[in-house]
Design brief:
24% strand, transferase, 9-stranded antiparallel β-sheet, alpha+beta, Beta-Lactamase, elongated, 15 helices, Heat Shock Protein 90, 3 domains
Length: 628
Amino acid sequence: MAKFILSIKWLFVMVIFVLVTGILTSNYLFSYHFYKKFFDHHIDTVSALFQKGTENITKPVEVFLYNVEALVCCRVLDFNEVEKTNRFLMEFMKKYPYVTSINYGDGNGNGYLILNDRGKWLNRIKRVGDTEHVVWNTLNNDGKIIKKIRVKDNYDPRKTVWYNQALHSKDIQWSKEYIFRTTKDPGVTASLKLCRNSKQIVGIDIMIKDLSVLLNKIKENVHPETKLYLLSNGDHVIAYTDEVQPEQSKIYTLDEKKFPLLFKALNSGVNASNITFNNQKWFVNIKKWENKNRQYSLVVLIPHVAITKSLRLHLFYQSFFSLLLTFFVFLYISRRYIEPLIDISKQMPEIGFKKIYLEKHSQRTDEIGYLSRAISDVSVQILKAKEIERKIQESNHFESVRRSLGEAVHRFKDIINIIQGFATLAQPKVSNEFAKNALDQIINASKRAIYLTKEILNVTGERKYEMKITDLNSIILSMKTKIEVSTEDSIKIVYEILNTPLPVKLDIEAFDEVLMNLVLNAKDAMPEGGTLTIKTKIASFLDKQFAVLSVSDTGVGMDEETIKRIFEPFFTTKGAKGTGLGLSIVYKIIKDHSGFIEVQSEIGKGTTFKIYLPLIKDVAMLTASSTE
């Protein structure tokens, strides 16, 4: 399917059509649907936010209880180690300030309590042998005991409500709301039996007043006249935003005198969505959810006048902004299309001199985007064409230099041959010992010069190859003795040669030179000894298969700058010991064999040369060649 392209002309038409249609239909839609949408949107928001808020309070507590269970059962946490337990529990209580205390009791009557009494940290320790006394510890902020007081108290954790509820529960047990004995504030306890079969219980006290704070924060995002109530198990009003001024140390139950509006809303029928109270109409929505053994009910009441007042205000704003939108649409079109075209035209004189970047416009999918990308592509193509032309000129120049160098080397070789010839003829006829040694040095220098000219001719491309199909593995194995003789005793040679033949087409003499060059380089890289690994394998690139020869050493390695230059003629890191032609010849030979080379190296960790030679698919050719 052809891609749809939106033209500027049709964009103008569509914008005007959408604008006019939007103004006409939005009046109807807002007037007809706003009444219900406003109500539903805010109720869903309130319910989701509040349920998430209560989960943010209860979930960490539940996860912490399970963690305590695991630590106690694995004997990592021991409540008898008081200060260690203090530090562990205080870290959790500091992170969640609504956790006011953590209680622990076992079946023998031992009890432990850590309490945050409005910023003051206290411990209560009950030992089973001390029947009528408990020890109160005052703690510093790190959980260390700084003061001890032994007081008379017949406290027994087994007699508490939270202990007995958790003892018979299979999972975390949330208690009913009650007044904390320690802080005199209303709250609720989450308790868990530890280690399943043991009579050990841990409980966490939570202040329920934090839920009222959460309700008031949510109310700010709904409407100032909204009233919200949170009920626990249908009988306790544990959080609310209005009607009753909360009293300290008091828990409220549903009462018609204290909560008349809430009482009417809950007793007007299950499906009642609105009520009338004191000649005022209210929208009613009740959301229910469960958490473990507790059921919560969130009652939201919104006055009808708040919604109708907001509706009239929104209708006014709609009319005003519709007119304002018309102006901004035309302003947008001007900036969206006219200014980009001017900007593009300013870039045109630079075509052919630099790459034109129109990133600000090229990401677009309309005509401006197509034009920007086309101009950028054209500028790149022009620069590429110039670069190709420059490379062709350089290539022609280098080809001319190569030919000239080849001719010069041939002439130089002829001169060296003459020098060597006359020196060889003159040496037997000279009786002076010094003259004989001098002629001997001339002959040896001539031989080295002739060898060097041969190497240079190899680099310049004058070499001819005798190509034939052979097994790469067999050639390598046949050279084992030569390789081992060429290396030091301190170098360990490892062969990892494939069992299957690797048929390749190559000049055996040239390949011998390639391998020995790499082996000698590896030897020079390991003056203190090391490991030389020669390995073969098969690799695939672009649907073609290659035989891969890897020569790896554990020597000094090379940096990135050296790797970039190692195949340059006459470049060497060996100083006067090297000619700088060995790897250049290797590169030229492998290139002439339709292969390529990869180099991997790191300072201090060694170097690996990988030579890729095309595999001959017809293995029968190898067999025929070997029989000949």
